[in-house]
Sequence to fold (340 residues):
Amino acid sequence: MARVTVFTLGGTISARGGDAARMTGTEVLAGLGVAPAPTGAPAAPSGLDVELRDFRRVPSSSLSFEDLTALAAEVTETVAAGSGVVVVQGTDTLEETAFLLDLLCTTEQPIVVTGAMRRPDLPGADGPANLAAALAVAADPGCRNLGVLVVLADEIHAARFARKSHTTSVATFTSPGAGPLGAVVEGRPRILLRPAVPTRLCPLHFDPSLRVALLTLSVGDRGELLETVAERYDGLVVAAFGAGHAPAWLVDPLAALTTRMPVVLASRTGAGATLSHTYRGPGSESDLLHRGLIPAGPLPPAKARLLLHALLSSGARGPAGYDRPRITAAFAHLDGTGRA
Ligand code: ASP
Fold:
């Protein structure tokens, strides 16, 4: 019988009324009709041995790095013991949890992250269907070796590509520029695509005490926050305009920062890759890269921040500064060009 361990962390899927942190893990599973309950499991795949870990009960905006590194450690132990994993949490930070697990957990077992957009007490609550689909994926041998997956609305997304793209739609998760890897049809996963490369090149760690800032540029930004970054942080991701552009007056301060810490250039647009040599002149992507910034490629800013943090935690940082070639190669590995 296939074994799946379910980690419940809180979120809308476990909400009672407006409070996103109340139900226990047992209530979440039993209430959704997919627990190993005496009444049976109408929406769940049959023949599943489901184990529950009531891990946290918080809105996903309140998950800390300590929570997530503890989760990654428990998930790693669980998959090593031969179980598939489903992580159930709020959707607000779901793509970040999924990507971080993708960076930290090595396994051929499916690791699936899911949640719900509608509370259990609302008409059309999507929690039961999402959990049933996630269990089906986590138990299916055909879903092994795909990296961490995000399953909602019957779609199967790679953690690397998945984005929450709408505040309320049950179809909020999309994979801009890539598309879902597959779908759950009649309760069974169908995988149509596989990522070209695994998410990471080598084992990574995550030190919650490091600080990587994420700065989203907006028109008229005078760059005051860069002074704080210089004083207090170990790295920076800039969510820049368009394909990687900044105001001309921020080029010198950003270039100065690169002498102290890695500065990654991402796009604030929400889809598409940063460019490297299309625009020229002060503040263009080619100018910023020439001045020492590192391209995020297609990785959105929040995920670029997690990758940079994991790299800095894993030896890309030292007394002599930071390992620019290694960080550049790790981002290039995910840019689809087949380099690195
Ligand atoms: N606020 C909720 C959370 O992320 C939203 C959700 O679960 O969809 O915890």
